[in-house]
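ugh ok so i messed up the first submission bc i forgot one of the chains. this is the corrected input, ALL of the components this time, i swear. 820 residues overall. if the numbers dont match what u have on ur side tell me asap before i send this to the collaborators (the ones from the other lab, u know who)
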Amino acid sequence: MMAQIQQQEDKVNLGAKKFIMWIFIFTSFMLFAALTSGFIVYSGGSGRGLNITLPVSFRYSTIVLIASSITLFLAARAAKQLNFEKQQQLLWITIALGVAFLILQVYGWYTLAYKMHIYLIDPNATRSFVYVMTFLHLLHIIGGIAWLISALNGSIKRIPQVKNLYRMEMTSIFWHFLDIIWIYLYVFLLLNQ
Amino acid sequence: MSTLSVHDHGVAHHEEGHEHHHDTFLTKYVFSQDHKMIAKQFLITGITMAVIAMLLSILFRIQLAYPDKAFPLLETLLGRFAPEGRLDPEFYLSLVTIHGTIMVFFVLTAGLSGTFSNLLIPLQVGARDMASPFINMLSYWFFLTACVIMLSSFFIQKGPAGPGWTIYPPLSALPTAMKGSGLGMTLWLISMVCFVASSLMGGINYVSTVLNMRTKGMDLWKMPLTIWAFFLTAILGVLSFPVLVAGVVLLIFDRSFGTSFYLSDIVVNGQVMPFEGGSPILFQHLFWFLGHPEVYIVIMPAMGISSEVMSVNSRKPIFGYHAMVYSLIGITVLSFIVWGHHMFITGMNPFLGGVFMITTLIIAVPSAVKTFNWLATLWRGNIRFTPAMLFAIGMVSFFISGGLTGIFLGNAALDINLHDTYFVVAHFHLVMGSAAIFGMLAGVYHWFPKMFGKMMDEKLGYLHFWLTFIGAYLVFFPMHFMGLDGVPRRYYAFTEFASMQRWLSVNMFITWAAIMSACAQVAFLYNFIHSIFWGKKATQNPWQANTLEWTTPVEHIHGNWPGEIPSVYRWPYDYSKPGAEEDYILQTTPLSQTMSSNLPHDFEDNPAGLEALNTWTSTQKANEQVK
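and heres the new structure output, hopefully the right one now
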């Protein structure tokens, strides 16, 4: 009977922990909301706009990130169906896509700086905002990749299914959120370019 | 009804054994994941930081009272920061900055929320621990790291940060601008990043615990007001601290990478700086979007604690429980749309200023609701003046006298005169400084038996209260008049200005009052430390309170309750209920055990219970008639 209570409490705690991820997402969203509001206040106050075409690689990176969300969704479904090999394969693909996104973003900076001669340091701070926003988003992506690796690691080590699903769910919440945030930032920048 | 789940110590004791883990010193006292230990860690660190910040304030008060005198002792103590026994002007600014930073963030945010949210949320909602004890532990260690980094800035060549606790650029963004903008400022920023991380980890945990881990029967409307206050405070923190992070990140880019978010047209020492196009006002927007909710993060836990303490010690239900909750929610929501009242003189569009003025003044409504409810709770109560009760009443007093001046300052037109004068200093030191610290002290005196299993000495408590209460008024009340006369805050000395020289005598008076109140804290520190080790042993429920934390054993155990977590059947404020045997009924007492004191409205959603009540009353009446 005690064991049963213990188990129930664990379950409740996992629910509370998942909730922690949701609240973290709110905090994270507030960070990016603050940056975009700062952008609006700045450009409204100074009358400066971006006046550049964003690098093409940002468009590709968006596609890559959406694709990674799809593969992660499939991986989570495979985990629920107890198909662990498929789960691991799909997680590998998701991680690869995540890394590809990282590289594409950095390549985007390279294009901005070396091809278009738009640097972080610019009297028009809206352009600096592009770097800061993508940089902070990339930091989150690195965290997301860490979650993906932990989910993959758990699946390879065959941790109990409850925990496996828990890790998959935490990873999914975070990763899909990063996807949505990037789309938000990208659309925001596109509208302001 | 269900006597099964009623908390019963006799039944529960056989299960105590499994709760004892193999604790080493390191896991029990240092890297503890137990919320009660983390609460104590937060409290003791918070008190230490408070003492340090208080001593800093005494240092700059001495400068303000005796601007022309040399104190050789100061040079012995501070070395190059006080050459020839007089405070260095730039060090004076650092003192003001660090005093503000430590008091607002480290004492009244982390020390207050960190201590009491950690202690009371699991205990009062009936949970074994936080949602994530590990993140909770991290939260404390990030906080301690932040403290250490902040204090370490006293030991570097140029001294600590000096641009004020609001760190407005350009002063904070140009490392060469003054001594306090150099390495000290960098350390300040690193420390704050750690602090925000700590604060977010704590806040996220509190919200998740309150929403997910309440015991059976504990619906939101049965939560004590403390929990409501901590919960809403945590929500405020979670939503506003990230915005400060955004502002600080941009500031770091300006400082260290040469961007121009906040900087434009700057000349330092005759040299034109390359910055162009930035807007320092942008920082103020980002800062005050956090900064204003921050003052509610500071005061709301104090409000929650005072509500609880006043209800317990008036032996009366809190007046207007629902109104108390809704006013807290109202303050939470409004706090996000008033930040502009800190920026009336930034050249803001007067229309926008008017909007911010109206939202600011609307905050007076929920604040007044709370104040009147506290007074009505006291009204005709069976008051017990414990030290905690005195501090709770003191909190209300400061909240009223400081809040009234907020109505002046919230006016965009009046603020032009009063901005950055001692009037502002008086206002916020009363309404959020003194009020919040009194709320915190009320909490310390009230929950000391829960934290340490000992009682604090009451006589010393009274001495501490009266000296601090009178001292705080003597310190801050005269400042109103200085401010109305136009004396600006943060100035090193007023001797250069003929019109302000006459305030020197008042400054001396304030300084001596401050020294007296600082000495009064020795009574508290002695009482606190002495009682931890040699205090009278506490009983399980020393204040005869209703809430769940007093159903736990005096000796702390992992998981809080031996055996099952008790269920909750009623709201926490059934004090002096007519017809009850005693003047308090624990939340864990089912209505079926208190037939003589049940009222029809106890059964609003419970027709079966209402019927039982009616049957019971009619049998009682029948019995009476037989007699």
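quick check: Residues 27-192 of chain A form a domain with the Four Helix Bundle (Hemerythrin (Met), subunit A) fold (CATH 1.20.120.80). that seems consistent at least. Helices of chain A lie at 2-46, 56-80, 84-115, 125-156, 161-192.
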